[in-house]
What we know:
The chain is of the alpha+beta class. It contains five helices and seven strands. The chain has a seven-stranded antiparallel β-sheet with strand order 1-2-3-7-6-5-4, sandwiched between helices. A hairpin with a 4-residue loop joins strand 2 (about 85-95) and strand 3 (about 100-110). Helix 2 runs antiparallel to helix 5 (about 185-205). The longest helix is centred in the last third of the chain and has 19 residues, at about 185-205. It is globular.
Amino acid sequence: MRKNRWCVAVTAALLLAGCGGGAESDSGDGKAVALTKEQVRETLPDGEAMPGWKESARPTAVEMDRLYRSQACPVKDNAGCDNSRFYGASTFRHDDTAATVTFLIIAYDSEQAAREAYDVLWDGYYGKRAGQRARTFGIGPIGDERDARFGSSGFRGEPGAVTQTRVGTTLLWTEAASTEKGGIDEDDVRDLTAVLAERARQAQNGDAPSAALDG
């Protein structure tokens, strides 16, 4: 599917850059802080956080540059990437349901920068990622801001969904799709989104991200 090809292209490009970066001290008082590259990588769900899923592309974070701005913010003049610091992704597949999910993160240097980018990126690009005739749906009180759409990502009506959330200084996306009807549903997408958002909150509180799907 077109969505899957896009996900592979993004994660493959990120993997070429590798990952790393030292961690900085965090206030640990619940105040939104700018994440380091290593914290961005740790925020992305890994194999331990995704029981029942297989890792297709390991969590990877890169410094935001011209190339990655064009991928993360593919709107006019790469709007939405102002004051962004790092970009990251990880991808998983579920053999039993023929589903795939890609987690994306942009880390900004301030909460204000993330807030200003939110509508620009949702309205300009990510909100359209769930395919034609996609409908909005609620995902509950996840993050500081949130949006979600569920539609068809394939040529035969296969399900696809995208969510965008803001947690402090980060914008987060969950893009899920399946090659089978019924392979994913709204509850699945909520659970996946909640894991990513909670891991981002843990990182900004100075904790090691540990949120995971229920086995």
